[in-house]
Amino acid sequence: AAVKGLTLKENPSPSLRKDKADTVIIGGGCVGVSLAYHLAKAGLKDVILLEKSELTAGSTWHAAGLTTYFHPGINLKKIHAYSIKLYEKLEEETGQAVGFHQPGSIRIASTPTRVDEFKYQMTRAGWHPTEQYLITPEKVQELFPLLNMDMVLAGLYNPGDGHIDPYSLTMALAAGARKYGAQLNYPVQVTNLNPRSDGTWEVETPLGVIQAKRIVNTAGFWAREIGKMVGLEHPLIPVHHQYVVTSTIPEVKALRRELPVIRDLEGSYYLRQERDGLLFGPYESEKKMKLQDSWVTNGVPPGFGKELFESDLDRIMEHIEAAMEMVPVLKQANIINTIAGPITYSPDILPMVGPHQGVRNYWVAIGFGYGIIHAGGIGKYLSDWILEGEPPFDLIELDPNRYGKWTTTEYTAAKARESYGFNNIVGYPKEERFAGRPTERAGALYDLLRSKCSMGFHAGWEQPHWFYKPGDEIGYKPSFRRTNWFDPVGREYKQVMEKVGVIDLSPFGKFKVKGTDSVKLLDHLFANVVPKVGTTNISHMLTPRGKVYAELTVSQLYPGEFMLVTGSGSELHDLRWIEEEIVRGGYKVEIENVTDEMGVLGVAGPYARQVLQKLTAEDLSDVSFKFLQSKHLKLSDIAVTAIRISYTGELGWELYHRKEDSVALYSAIMEAGQKEGIDNFGTYALNALRLEKGFRAWGAEMNCDTNPLEAGLEYFVKLNKVYVL
Fold it and tell me: Which part of the chain is the GCVT N-terminal domain (predicted)?
């Protein structure tokens, strides 16, 4: 049938029709349907989507439907931009109207700090071709004549922003998915997921079993239930989000063109035109906002699909008053509808997208606080990743493996509260957020150092960013100008350059690899050669397209036994890649994640050797312990694996040891270095030192957007290696 003949009324098809699939997508909200559309359009056969009730049930159908090019990050802007460009042409492609309005949007600055933030964002706008302008109050008033201009200092304007009808959008994507051959089945509930030894899945439903090469969890606020079927506890929690719709407002009706969407960031709400009235939705503070935490402990009520929560205007009254102050015509408006529905939040508000470590061929696209603007771009991003074996660009901030066993339900709830309340907070560089901290993973030195420094959060760990001295302005005081840590970081930099410093590097991800094929595996995994026994090198895992997927230090501790070390944020990101290569190549190896069992101290500076030599009988001279060598030795009777390497660029060692020994080892080193003037330094000084040395960092100078030659890594890439895929 011609696609134009399809109507918005969907006819459920509760039959499976097929018992085999390449990809089974679980969940028929806009994200899941977008993935089905993109996979099918790209030519993948046997794409099946299963939805337990009807398409858009859950969070999609009641969403406010905002679309924006703006994002404070870099690559997530690509997701937003792709979505908007797709939505612009969907009606033409599928014959389904999508109700897309593009009046633009303005973020309002009503404080000098917010103007600084807008200027900062404009310096980042050149990364992406989408339009973004810092506009004057006069231009703001021209675009949105109903504002109280006493409150407006500037605006950040994105032409092309707007809003779309989420139901119509999903139905258009569904029509496209069917047109290209995908099968959308509903109401069909997934009752169980059974992994098979070959990495495929049995997807159980009341209508029969489907054998699938891979499964993708796009189940919205049911995603936790799907995760539990495969033994995972996804850190997700539903929050109550309300928005209010007014009756006709004469001043709005009299306008000749649709008002742009505004985001009053100090008032913490969005506001847009809805027919001849206005629609506005606030984000309450973490104290006032409401979680649906009973769904986490007891599961989502079985029949919940297109239901809403009881509205609670008292909870958002301060935001209603702020909106009336900013848009005075609201004072005479009548509220005709209040929508209160569930939106799923991850701890940091960003979705979890991609393959999951520890479970083969299980992918997720879950935890969307802004599902409508993300749906199109994420559908394309995941489709490309599935079909090509690597992500089209780097989005490690969405990696589902950024969370781990340390991510408890209590942590998730505390962070979701914070993230919701901070929706419109000023976004400073080097932002730290403090809810849910410390986690159970904090680190062995946390209690000892916590009062002496400003801690940073790294994948559950607490790691010193910079240390306090008498006279310093202590605490976390971010700014777009000079911060309170500027001088202290310079002091620590000088300490390492001229004397000797100690840094806690325990958050590193650490893996042990051993077995018959260990050398063969690492030769396959890395672009560098395999280090000899007792030596270390810097190695990079490259994607099939030659992008830098990861940077690790590789040490051969004993014949055929290796230690691999990566950055804290990359621990499970890198482990997943390695595990997949082990399975794909049939390598006979064992890999063990020892991240939580091992502490790491870095000692660096011209006096590093002098200090450490006092604690060991091992000869640490340059002749006996060369750069990039590794040795097992005892420091003050504590067993360590010492690697002569330092990210500072100065003389130094990294000391790997049992976490239980961290306090004793740290204390012994500090005691031994008194004469040399030893002191602590943090990660901010480390970063300054490595930049001046010209050392690259994964996630900054290299990632999945860069090849190693672009990043200046040719020294570590042996192009004459015989590389067998």
Answer: 451-721
